[in-house]
Design goal:
Number of domains of chain B: 1
Number of domains of chain A: 2
Radius of gyration of chain A: 19 Å
CATH class of the largest domain in chain A: Alpha Beta
Number of strands of chain A: 10
Strand order of the largest sheet of chain A: 6-7-8-3-9-10
Structural class of chain A: alpha/beta
Shape of chain A: globular
Strand content of chain A: 15-25%
Oligomer: heterodimer
Number of strands of chain B: 0
CATH topology of the largest domain in chain A: Rossmann fold
Largest interface: A-B, 22 and 17 residues
Number of helices of chain A: 9
Helix content of chain A: 25-40%
Largest sheet of chain B: none
Strand content of chain B: under 5%
Shape of chain B: elongated
Distance between the termini of chain B: 33 Å
Structural class of chain B: mainly alpha
Order of helices and strands of chain A: EEEHEEHEHHHEHEHEEHH
Helix content of chain B: over 70%
CATH superfamily of the largest domain in chain A: P-loop containing nucleotide triphosphate hydrolases
């Protein structure tokens, strides 16, 4: 679980996050949603420890990040996995080397043991016969799956995903969403997904945090979001006709 | 103010390079890869340029020495001094700023724009150490490259001088050994060492701190070449003043 209390962060005198207090639950897919410029990316980078908050605390399983020394912060980061928007796979490495990378850096496993673990996670993300290929030789959807495999290979406690299905066709996007949710449930990890894809919200939004202009405007799950009267949320969610119809159907109890 | 900011940021990056070292077994592989990319892959152009540079210096010197009172051996002496003191260390370094410098900036810059550096940081890896330190270690071999360049430059000078009919072989060999000061070699290698540090770190800085997309990667490579060349020329002047004056 990640607990955030009164989080403030700004740049050049402009306050981006204006005192966010919320929780991200273990074993659930926690989604951060909001319009562009609402502070989602800054919030995510604060959660990852890439930005230091100006005020407030972030606790990972009751451990306050700000009280840790540099060594302890590094140890905590080793328990985090991250799936980047553009996958961020290392171009110069093969798929197997990319997935093996966290193991090479942080474990003392033998090469055979590492390969065994790599093959296991690649199988889990439904990838076969790609070990010796380079990232440029596989599709965007496959790259995302490799990124997920790399993020989970070292058995993290926290998984962060920055717009994991952006640039993918709807079917591939749904496969990636479902894969992340399944992995979250199987491993009981705290997963935080930064997205503005309403399909993801509908599909895997077990805990949704809606940000507006750096504030937490609403929090709930994918059932509650269609019933809320919060104007900021409804303006965001029902910008598409499809979701307007879904809401009408929900309200009619269909 | 921007220049002061850049200079400060450059030295902060240098300090970070030597903090939180990457796992030794990983670092060893990275160093061998960088030796291959930065040194071995540059040998072709260095051999080619050094040989012909030596040849041209000899022909030009020979064509300008018309006075019968000046001994022909001076052609070899001049070629040797030019090659050892300046052409091999400085000229080759500027060529390397274009070849190796652009490669370093564009490869690190591409990693920056595709979030690969962020991926390293999120994993708790010191990205400057992972990316820059192996390049510095690989370029410690640079003085050896310059030694090869010197040898090939003088070989080119000999072949152009002797086979071009400008000087006899024994006169060339005698001129080559005339008034030889071993300290000049030491000066050239000390310079090469400092040039290697510039070649590894200035392009890395421009790649590491770049912002934007693919277009900016290209711009950063050009800027990196300009600043690496400027740094080489300035450091060349300072070291010459300190070591030879």
């Amino acid at each position: 679980m990640i607990k955030v209390e009164d989080l403030h962060k700004g740049f050049n005198g402009e306050e981006i996050l204006k005192g966010i207090t919320t929780e991200f639950y273990q074993g659930k897919t926690n989604l951060i949603i909001g319009q562009s410029g609402s502070g989602k990316t800054v919030f995510m980078k604060c959660l990852l420890g890439l930005f230091s908050p100006e005020q407030g605390t972030i606790k990972y399983n009751d451990v306050d990040y700000s009280t840790l020394n540099a060594e302890e912060k590094r140890d905590l980061r080793k328990k985090m996995g991250m799936v980047f928007q553009g996958s961020a796979l290392f171009d110069s490495m093969t798929i197997a080397e990319n997935v093996m990378f966290p193991l090479r850096m942080f474990t003392k496993l033998k090469k055979e043991e590492m390969m065994e673990r790599v093959n296991k996670v690649l199988k889990r993300v439904n990838l076969k016969n790609v070990n010796h290929k380079y990232p440029s030789e596989i599709s965007g959807g496959m790259q995302k799956r490799v990124a997920i495999a790399r993020a989970i290979v070292n058995e993290p406690k926290f998984l962060f995903c920055d717009e994991p299905n952006s640039g993918l066709d709807p079917k591939s996007a749904m496969i990636i969403d479902n894969l992340i949710q399944e992995i979250t449930h199987e491993n009981n990890i705290t997963t935080v997904i930064n997205t503005h894809d309403m399909n993801s919200v509908l599909e895997i939004g077990e805990n949704i945090i809606f940000l507006q202009k750096g504030n937490l405007a609403w929090q709930g799950n994918n059932n509650e979001i269609f019933k809320t009267e919060n104007e900021a949320v409804t303006n965001f969610v029902y910008s598409s006709d499809l979701f307007k119809k879904v809401r009408e159907a929900q309200l009619k109890g269909l | 103010m921007k220049y002061l900011h850049d200079i400060g940021q450059y030295f902060i990056m240098l300090k970070d390079v030597f903090r939180r070292m990457t796992k030794a077994s990983v670092l060893r592989q990275l160093i061998f890869k960088e030796i291959d990319d930065l040194i071995i892959n540059s040998m072709g152009i260095i051999i080619f340029i050094s040989f012909f540079l030596g040849a041209v210096v000899t022909i030009q010197t020979a064509l300008n020495l018309n006075n019968p009172l000046i001994p022909k051996s001076l052609i070899a002496f001049t070629a040797r001094q030019s090659i050892i003191l300046e052409f091999s260390p400085t000229f080759i370094s500027i060529i390397m700023a274009g070849k190796v410098g652009s490669y370093i900036t564009s490869s690190i810059g591409t990693m920056r724009v595709t979030e690969q550096i962020d991926a390293l940081e999120v994993m708790g890896i010191n990205s400057t150490n992972y990316l820059v330190f192996p390049k510095i270690i690989a370029l410690l071999l640079y003085p050896f490259v310059i030694a090869i360049s010197m040898f090939l430059g003088i070989l080119g000078a000999y072949m152009a001088g002797v086979f071009g009919g400008f000087i006899a072989s024994d006169q060339f060999l005698s001129g080559l050994q005339e008034d030889f000061i071993p300290y000049h070699l030491a000066y050239a290698f000390i310079k090469s060492f400092f040039f290697a540090l510039i070649l590894a770190t200035v392009p890395s800085y421009h790649g590491y701190y770049m912002k934007g997309g693919a277009l900016e990667v290209g711009q950063a490579s050009t800027t990196s070449f300009v600043w690496t060349s400027v740094m080489l020329i300035i450091v060349n002047y300072i070291l010459t003043q300190l070591l030879l004056s």
